[in-house]
Amino acid sequence: MSGWTVRGGRLPAQGAVVVTGASSGLGRECALELESRGFQVLAGVRRQEDGEKLLAESLHGRLRHVVVDITDEASVLACAELAEREHGGLRGLVNNAGICVPGPLECLDSDQFRHQLDVNVVGHLGVIRAHLPLLRRARGRIVNVTSGLGKAAVPFLGAYSTAQFAKEALSDALRRELAPQGVPVSIVAPGAILTPIWSKVSEAGERALDGVPAAVAEPYRTAFRAFMEGNAQGAAASRTTPEDFARAVARALTDGRPRTRYWVGADARRMGRLARLLPDTLLDRQFAGITASVRGPAERHPR
Ligand SMILES: NC(=O)c1ccc[n+]([C@@H]2O[C@H](COP(=O)([O-])OP(=O)(O)OC[C@H]3O[C@@H](n4cnc5c(N)ncnc54)[C@H](OP(=O)(O)O)[C@@H]3O)[C@@H](O)[C@H]2O)c1
């Protein structure tokens, strides 16, 4: 072993890992997968009963839950204290928790936009800050979960895309800052995977246009509704699974030389490639169909 990486080969799946947002979906799958591979897992949940449910599914006696809301500093610090007390250090921190606030940007108020960024960006930085001493101590790694939408911003998911772009930048800067300290930072970027997030997004989408004046909402309504329906269908048809995601996280934690990025799913990889290769105007065309029926200013303000 040289420094914090090994040439070729793999690191053993040993030591403690914190996974945030483990109550459902990708985080739940990831917590169980990492436990099955040999890690001691501290699974972050917001409600005690979700932790107990997860514990009942755990098969190897190496998982315990910790109640943590990543926007609540006290609970984040308590999580780090527990990790220190029980394990001394951390082999991994998986920043997975997240929400998606859908809606045309004009229809979101500042509190909604801020909440998106608070959870998906600011909260993660707080978690990282609190756990870094433990990661340094145990030669640990950080895994940040972003999305295909961290490279190309989709209309009507502008707040979510903004948060994912920000988490990408956070990850890049952190990786460069922490490299000399031997703490690798990897991004795991999934495409659409059917998890509870999609029903939450659909429900939030139903309400997204309620709080704004009709004159603002109406021009978007038809296009937005069609987009939300298409989105839900796309997720339901996706062949990428939570297990694919969990395997990618496990690789990020055990690869001899961790990659900077692990795409999960052909759609995410394609989005990344398009964003890298296409000029903005061509990329705009990829998304033009989504907003084709949005009424323009002439129709909004007829003379
Ligand atoms: N599924 C996809 O298609 C997809 C694609 C790309 C990226 N992602 C990303 O993958 C991650 C997991 O998504 P998912 O699909 O598994 O969604 P999910 O099933 O809705 O799970 C989200 C998790 O985040 C937790 N969470 C929300 N706000 C939190 C907060 N303030 N503090 C702590 N935990 C919080 C939720 O806890 P509660 O149950 O308490 O709300 C839940 O455990 C997200 O970051 C998402 O952006 C998902």
Automatic annotation (TrEMBL):
Query: Which branch of life, at top level?
Result: Bacteria
Annotated Gene Ontology MF terms?
oxidoreductase activity
Entries under InterPro entries matching the protein: NAD(P)-bd_dom_sf, SDR_fam
Q: Name one Pfam family in it.
A: adh_short
Recorded hits in CDD domains, A to Z, give: 17beta-HSD-like_SDR_c
User: What's a GO biological-process term for it?
Assistant: steroid metabolic process
Q: Which family does the record claim for this protein?
A: Belongs to the short-chain dehydrogenases/reductases (SDR) family.
Q: What is this protein called?
A: SDR family oxidoreductase
Provenance organism: Streptomyces genisteinicus
